[in-house]
Specification:
mainly alpha, globular, binds zinc ion
């Protein structure tokens, strides 16, 4: 049950924290984003990657590459919303942005039942994204129920992916392939988060610190 509830809880927590706290500047959200990227990268490399190669075959690498391509395609739609780049144009949120963001969240939910480490990495990854998404939604002139609906849609995407993967028998034989695909998606997104977290390549000790802590914790947890 936690596999479904925790990703939803992360979005609720992220959304509420923004609405209650109303931050003027995004320094701490950006730090949390850098931490989440580091934790996600650490989990992908120390937990998921060894497991897909241990259980997979010589084709595993191709599935990882396919995942990287899929994430590149999704970013064309979302313009990077799933790694914390959310731009609202004319106080609107384009449908393509939501489509890319939702699909990404849906795909990353697939292997959660088989990988408990991934659950926590996804929960931590969702928190800052939900915060930034909430900020963007509340800048639009959508009415309240539409704003909440967009957030609910985002919140249920990952559990929906986990559910579908678990209860679709024809997918079972492909579980290693699916996980390898998600490894590609996560490798791309986590490295993008880390890459974009160093603005203009300026030295930033607090960001460096949260990244080292994020990687360290992902190793400890594993
Ligand atoms: Zn970006
Ligand atoms: Zn993601």
């Amino acid at each position: 049950m936690n596999n479904y509830l925790l990703p939803i809880a992360a979005v609720i927590l992220g959304g509420l924290s923004i609405l209650i706290w109303k931050p003027k500047e995004l320094r701490s959200v950006k730090l949390l984003l850098a931490f989440s990227g580091a934790f996600l990268l650490g989990t992908t490399l120390t937990s998921l990657l060894p497991s897909v190669f241990a259980n997979g075959n010589e084709h595993t690498s191709y599935w990882i590459l396919a995942g990287i391509i899929i994430q590149i395609l999704l970013e064309q739609l979302s313009k990077g919303a799933e790694h914390g780049h959310i731009h609202t144009s004319n106080n609107r949120i384009p449908l393509t942005l939501l489509g890319g963001l939702y699909l990404h969240a849906f795909i990353e939910g697939f292997p959660i039942h088989q990988h408990n480490d991934l659950l926590w990495a996804i929960v931590i990854h969702k928190l800052p994204i939900a915060m930034l998404l909430t900020l963007a939604i509340w800048q639009t002139n959508f009415n309240f129920s539409k704003k909440v609906m967009i957030l609910i849609g985002f919140a249920i995407m990952t559990p929906l992916g986990s559910y579908l993967n678990f209860y679709t028998p024809i997918l079972q034989p492909y579980s290693v392939h699916i996980t390898a695909l998600v490894v590609g998606v996560l490798l791309h997104i986590s490295t993008t988060i880390l890459f974009e977290s160093t603005e203009n390549h300026k030295f930033n000790i607090s960001k460096l610190l949260v990244i080292v802590i994020g990687i360290g914790l992902s190793i400890l947890k594993h």
